[in-house]
Each structure stands twice: as structure tokens, then as C-alpha cells.
Amino acid sequence: MSFSRREFMQVLAVASASGMALSHQDLLAATPGAGERLYDLPKFGNVSFMHFTDCHAQLLPIHFREPSVNLGVGDAVGRPPHIVGEQLLKFYGIKPNTAQAHAFSYLNFEQAAKTYGKVGGFAHLATLVKQIQTSRPHALLLDGGDTWQGSATSLWTRAQDMVDACKLLGVQIMTPHWEFTYGADRVKEIVEKDFKGQIDFLAQNVTTSDFGDQVFAPYVMKEQNGVKIAVIGQAFPYTPIANPRHFVPDWSFGIQDENMQKQVDEVRAKGAQVVVVLSHNGMDVDIKMASRVRGIDAILGGHTHDGMPAPVIVKNGGGQTLVTNAGSNGKFLAVLDFDVRGGRVQDFRYKLMPVFANLIKADPAMQALIDQHRAPYKAKLEEKLAVSEGALYRRGNFNGSWDQLILDALMDVRGADMAFSPGVRWGTSLLPGDTITYEAMMDQMAVTYPATTLNEFTGAQIKEIMEDVCDNIFNPDPYFQQGGDMVRVGGMTYSCSPKAPMGQRIHNMRLKGQPIEADKKYKVAGWASVQEGVQGTPIWDVVSTYLREQKVVKQVKVNAPQIVGMQGNPGMAA
To answer: What is the CATH number of the domain that holds 491?
Structure first.
């Protein structure tokens, strides 16, 4: 597959050539014809895939701020997805102060969000999927996982709202991650009952701990326009580390390159002319896997929530592999077209389309299903807890303002010296002046292990915890990056040197201006422990209590660490 400058511009999501150069008025007023210009996708090739990932149970349109810090280390420096803001726009040739600049970057987030409106929503996504299918009736719809978790209704229905929505959307193939936090029994129940005959749930890297048997199908073979294709599933490889092991005690995970190569060879031997991996590895891991495993045409990736306008093309022993990542929160729909002739891929087109709710009519059937699932909880979801004076967001390597609010609540309600909050990437954004409803709060903490804790740790233990998490993010080998972003820290200031060796990245830790003492004990609040049997007040009770008392949340002061040795890194806003 060649990749000329002309083709590069074609695969840029929402490129101006496809009608993305819309005026503000187009999006504000949903001008007739604006949506057609944005979502016009000329036919190409004879094999097609639609892909979304990491929607985190967001059925309604939302705001979502892209990261201002997404640091790359080692070989990843200056390589997508570790480019943010103005550097990202320059890299992809995206014009500033446009709809696509808002879709792919954090720049001018508050004003741009007001201008362009909310993104995502399954009713709007359903309409877009149907529109794509009119020109590509053969296209497969792939769900990259982290679909059943992330909202109050998904938690309270034990994912049934999302299962029903995905079936109505027409999802045909899925691979998992946060789905496992409902426990093995619930996952198997959905796969064996709800999904049977409609959605293939794939995971080549999930096996039984005793005999190494496949728990789920590793791949599925399909045919489009007479072309045999195979889709291989890759679940998040570090599920038992990043999430509670006791939810899936009898299953083993891991990256499993050798088994992936075996699956690729097997489907090729069965006649597959196109091989796609539906992955929840994270983009850096997918890039490394693509360099090691031969015979994969494309990896449609997730986990790291990177909205990438174009694929990264990775050379390997068998040729090359396209590596993509389709963002999060239902904000994007990717379309990958292949031209397959002579038994192999000859060319491709890729487009990552932002789902602007102002431009796409809601699908009536999907909207009715969403309303049905929300109805029993409507009053609770709409409960007004407080008003935020500033924007609240989460995404980035370090603390966001939503994280800081949670940390402030933990320290206040639990009487702690400092607090830790998980470095998860999911969670919607609010604009200045927005009401913090119970639903908006739950978007940040809807997990099946919500207990808060209050422990005493020595300064040495705190540093050890921080160093361990930091290595999960900034280890130069992607295969050792085993979690989300950096643990969020409240109360304690510190410096971080991402390029330093393991155990030497965290320094200058201080509490109220005084150095943290190695032997001194400190009260540390936290939540979402992965240990079994942890008891404590659920995080939503702690934060809702705090918000009701505050009534108005002043401009949150984010406790960002001092980043050392990363000057000029394009993954950090200047």
C-alpha cells in the first residue's frame, strides 16, 4: 500500500476537501446541507469497516475536551498520538479555529464548544451509521470496547442499556476491557444470551488460567463483495492489573504476540485477503505489535482515547500495517475502505468523522430506546448538585479540573492530608456556568468498585506508589505501560521527570510547602482500590455531599506537577 501526499490528505479526517470547512453558523443553526457536506464520503474500494471505541456508555451528546498533555517518551516522542494543540494541527495540516481543530484539539475549548455544540450521542451516531451504509451496505460495524462502563445508567442497569443500544446500532464485532469489571459471569451472560447470533465478542488473548483454552472466539471470518476477510480481537492485555483481578479470577490476559501471529497465519491459510485486528491495546502498544506481527492490514485501536485524523503506517517483515485510534465518548466514527484486487490490499482510504450532534438528526428508534432506559432514573440523573464557575475536564497525563474537584472532595469529607484518584481517561466535560447534575458527576466515577479509603502511608510508601504508577505511563517500552494516565494527586505538590529511569522520576514532594519525610505517616484518601474486600463510603456519596455543601464550585485550581526535562516536547502545551 503506497501512501502519497495526495492520499495522506484524503485520509485526514474531516479534511476541507470533504466539506469540513464549515462556518460557525452552519453548526450553530444546523444549516440545511451542512451535514451533507461534512459527512459526504465518496465510495471507494470493495471492503469497508466502520469503527468506534471507548464510548464509555455515553448515550447522549456531550462535551469532551481533548488533552493538552499527552507526552511521548522513547521512540514515541513527536509521533502520533503524542502531539497536542498547535503542534497537532500543524502535523495534520488542520486549519486553526475551525470545526476540525475543535474536534481534534483542546485549543479554545470553551469558546469552540459553545460555537460547535455537543458531540456524540448514540441516536446521532445511529443516523450517521445508516448514512454510511447507504453507500457501503457491505461495511462491518466494529466496537473497540469500553462500551458498557462510564455512566450512571450503565452501572445501574449492569450494562443492559449499552447492550441494547449496541444491538440496535448494528454492532457486529466487539472486543473488551472495562466490560470485565462487571465480573466474568455477567460478561458471559451477555455474550451467550444478548449477543448470540448478532455480535461476535472476540479476544484472542484471553485464555483460561488452568489449561490455556480460549475463553472467547479469537477471530471471525466474513465476506464482502466476494472478498474473504478476518477480524481478530485483542482485549486490553493488562485487565487484571489495571482493574480488580477478583472479577476475572480464572482468566489470563497479556499481549501474546506469538498467539496473535498464529491467528493471523491461520486466517490467511483459510483464505483471508484482508486481516484486521480490533484492538484495545492502546496506540503505542498497537504500533509496537504492528512492527512485530506480520500479515495484519490494519489495527483499529482503542483504550488510549486518541482521536487520530490519519493512520500511522508501520513497516514490518510482511509489508506494512495501518494503526488507527478512533477517540472516545462516541465523539467519532471511523470509516476504513480497502481496494482489494488480486488477493491483496492495493489501496485504502480512511476518515475519522466527528459526530456533531447539531448536524445529524437523532434516529427516532435509538432515541426512544435511550429514553426508555433513562426513564426510571430520570429524577436522580437530573438532580442539581452545584454550579461550576470554570470548565471541568479530565483527559491528560496529569490532573484535570474534574480530577481536582474529586480530590478536593475526598480531602474535605474524609479529613485527609492528601488524596489519590485513579488516572482514568474517561469522563465528560462541562463548560463554565454549567450545572453539575448527579449524572454529570457519575460520568466521572461510575465503577463497580467505588469504595473510598483513608489510610496512613509513610512518605517512603507514597513515593513508591507514585514511582510505580509513573513507570506504567512513561516506561519507554510500550509493553510495560500497563495502566491509564498518572494517578491524580491532591494536597501534595511534586515534580516529575518522565525521561528519568524507573524509581527516579518523582521528586520534590511537598505538603503545605514542607518536604515529605520518608518515615513520617500521612493520612491519604483514595478510591477505586483494585484489592478485594475493600469497604468504604462510595465515591459518589463523598463527592455529592461536598457539592451540595459548596453549591457553587469556584474556579478549580489544578494541582499540576512540575514537569522536568520535557521542554519542546510536542505532547505538552507550550
So the answer is: 3.90.780.10
